[in-house]
Write a structure and sequence with these properties.
Blueprint lengths: L4 E4 L2 E4 L10 H4 L3 E11 L4 E5 L1 H14 L8 H14 L6 E9 L10 E8 L10 E9 L16 H13 L4 E5 L5 E4 L3 E6 L2 E4 L10 H15 L4 E2 L4 H5 L3 E6 L3 E8 L2 E2 L7 H15 L9 E3 L3 H5 L5
Parallel strand pairs: 7-8, 7-14, 11-12
Antiparallel strand pairs: 1-2, 1-6, 3-4, 3-5, 4-16, 5-6, 8-9, 10-11, 10-13, 13-14, 14-15
Helix pairs in contact: 5-7
Bound molecules: 4'-deoxy-4'-aminopyridoxal-5'-phosphate.
The site of 4'-deoxy-4'-aminopyridoxal-5'-phosphate has 14 residues, from helix 5.
């Protein structure tokens, strides 16, 4: 049984005691919104750094707004909750967390009362070395006018679940979604990038994708700095994937995860591509604080710097 402690509505509780009522909208309809984020252990600094907390809090608030939730926590209180759960479990290792706001009222239109928990998990890297063999799934990414993916609710993830199980049943590692317009959207829980004729390309925010924080990190910082080019944000057709030189998924959980084939078409020489490799190692250095740039993106959990880092209003 897990010995991890979960932060739930103001206190740390052993995981088996963190419970939700069966009739709640949270359990029955998955009426929640959440963030998945990571904290990285930096051995040289003896410090645990959360990556881009302020951006995760901002996106959580946008999801709450779209769901008409009220969760009365300031960003400073959300930071304190994250700090408490990480320090309270005495983590000195890389940790993944889910920060979840949920509704315990009953019924499809319940908007309150709301609660919040932070659930830390030991979760390693996803298939980083060999690369993923992907398919273009026949399931379509849900549209912004039906079940918007911009809104990060647990209920939305059944779309990814259907596609992932189908992909695995068909002998692939992971699906790539097209949207209702027939253009490439994203992975089940990750954003997609491809490299074509040397250019790094990703679908636009209007392609029925989550507004990924890792995507922003690549666009704002890593691709210009490491590869000396700007990311092209434009629609991608399915067949472009087949003739891409490289492709990868990115996300807080996925980090940079290479894709080596799509629908059994090998990308490039069928091995992890060189630009993907460079971006992946640059990303890991940045999130861990080995690369000291963008200190404002890393919030320290233990040290005095933690108190000084702004996490938004
Ligand atoms: N798309 C979906 C559907 C996701 O669940 C995630 C993971 N949060 C991503 C993309 C990547 O987003 P981020 O970089 O903010 O983790």
């Amino acid at each position: 049984m897990s010995t991890l402690k979960i932060w739930m509505n103001g206190s740390l509780v052993p995981e088996p005691e963190a419970k939700l009522p069966v009739n709640s909208a949270a359990v029955f309809y998955a009426t929640n919104v959440f963030e998945g984020l990571r904290a990285y252990w930096n051995q040289a600094d003896e410090e645990l750094y959360c990556f881009r907390l302020a951006e995760h809090f901002a996106r959580l608030r946008e999801s709450m707004k779209m769901m008409r939730f009220s969760v009365p926590y300031t960003d400073a209180q959300l930071y304190e909750a994250a700090r408490q759960v990480l320090a309270g479990n005495e983590f000195r290792e890389d940790i993944h967390m889910h920060m979840v706001a949920y509704v315990t009222g009953v019924g499809v239109d319940a908007t309150e009362p709301t609660g919040l928990y932070i659930n830390p998990r030991r979760r390693g890297r996803i298939e980083g070395d060999a690369g993923l063999r992907c398919c273009v799934t026949s399931w379509v990414r849900t549209s912004d006018n039906a079940i918007p993916i911009r809104l990060k609710s647990g209920s939305n993830y059944q779309n990814g679940r259907l596609a992932t199980l189908q992909a695995k049943a068909d002998g692939y590692d992971a699906p790539i979604f097209l949207n209702g317009h027939g253009h490439v959207a994203e992975g089940s829980g990750a954003t997609l990038f491809m490299v074509r004729r040397g250019r790094v390309v990703t679908p636009p925010l209007s392609a029925d994708i989550l507004e990924s924080i890792t995507r922003t990190t690549l666009i704002e910082d890593l691709v210009p700095r490491v590869l000396a080019q700007d990311v092209a944000e434009r629609e991608i057709d399915r067949t472009e994937l087949y003739v891409a030189d490289e492709a990868f998924f990115c996300g807080s959980g996925y980090e940079i995860t290479p894709i080596v084939s799509v629908d059994r078409f090998p990308l490039g020489d069928g091995r992890v591509g060189p630009l993907t490799r460079r971006l992946s190692s640059a990303y890991m250095d940045l999130v861990r604080g080995v690369d000291r740039s963008h200190a404002e993106w890393r919030t320290a959990v233990y040290g005095p710097r933690g108190a000084k880092v702004a996490v938004g209003a």
